[in-house]
């Protein structure tokens, strides 16, 4: 800028004084706003630079009075260090910041110095995870659900007492897969509280399809479980010796039973017995209409007390870190194992020989009551898991690019490479426990289905997006845990709606593309894990059928164990007040610029 002196003029002094006074007024106004605004954030850097620059110019004009400024021919060649970015520059900076997390950094365990044959190397093209519409669409794919202002509220009420002298001992034999055993154990903690019993550390299921020999301490942190529940239920590792050979009653607790049933019916057994053995643990306690303290106890047991064993936690954390090295990732609970397909009777896309094998397994499994299943009807009712091929179509329609890292949380996929070929062709970066860790690292957990499932559970809970191909026990347990931890994004496929769309594709009536994508996105816009109250029974159902149609407690612990930080009215009022203050300050800034 060029500076030329000229004679002093009185009106220049007046103008400088007005500018200086306005600066003082603006500074006082800003302080007043800061006092009124309870949680006012600091003014951003560009605003500070603007105010300081204007005040300096006004002060110089007041003191010198004779300064005359006009553009220099060389001004356009120099850059002003205090120049505010233009709107274009702001956009460029935003996109640059968004790109950072999409730029893949070679994971430590994939570097040349540390590469191992058991770990798949990322394709050369995996430098970013841009969707078809660029980074902004990619950002939406990983965006968390809205209205996530819910936090855990599981502390007991003021009249909640610590356990005193109990009336007897409760033995529990759990049943089912890992997730069934987890929720069953938590329910038995609540039952022990209701009937005033000392809970003996539960026995894990060793007789089901999986034939797992793991004990409680092999899967869960036994000491932590006992100590964490000290103020709720007395827990011991073993039954006292004097009672080991005594008379016990083996009781099949009624499915989905109420507080009154346990208090009155089961509680009355203490008059004759000192030891009650629960023959089963899954789904023994109703989802709703229980005292608030009992519901909160179920959550404390599930999300705080029932922690995995240290060696499982450590291995699970390692798997998560290795997946994170690829960037944001999906955990896909691909329920396409032999036991699931045999149990559900789903044979779509399988050969006749495979369908026959599954039918034989179902017939020979004694505790599976339903033997005759119409596979086609089952599929169109939405009762079948999505096939790997269908999952690939689904993910592509949602907009996930082919470079997306996917962790397969599952056991051995039925049909192996053959049935995974289509999914892998769409999404080559498919990962699992077996190719993220070496055989030596997994050796302590191999041949123990519950321990291997626990590793899948940990990665699924910690993933950026969780997608189950079937709404089974693990899918519900993981979804509920993710809700409890802050409503992390969980996309629940509408299988019934999807099957009809996939049927149209197979018949040539619909092609993959924008039309299919728009329809699938529309169907799932409200199925992404946003906070909502737990669903009740299906209208028109009665008695036990009505109870079984309710949404499971551990799939959605809202409202019993989650509370809003503040009411929606207060939040709305704060947001509106902040917007008004921002508009007011913007107007003052514009006025100041006009004066200058």
From TrEMBL:
CDD domains: O-FucT_plant (cd11299). Residues 529-550 are annotated as: Disordered. It is found in: Membrane. GO terms for molecular function: glycosyltransferase activity. Pathway: Glycan metabolism. GO terms for biological process: fucose metabolic process. It is a single-pass type II membrane protein. Its main location: membrane. Pfam families: O-FucT. Keywords: Carbohydrate metabolism, Fucose metabolism, Glycoprotein, Glycosyltransferase, Membrane, Signal-anchor, Transferase, Transmembrane, Transmembrane helix. One of its GO terms (cellular component) is cytoplasm. InterPro entries: FucosylTrfase_pln (IPR024709), GDP-Fuc_O-FucTrfase (IPR019378). PANTHER family: O-FUCOSYLTRANSFERASE 7, OS02G0726500 PROTEIN-RELATED. Belongs to the glycosyltransferase GT106 family. This is O-fucosyltransferase family protein. The lineage of its organism: Eukaryota, Viridiplantae, Streptophyta, Embryophyta, Tracheophyta.
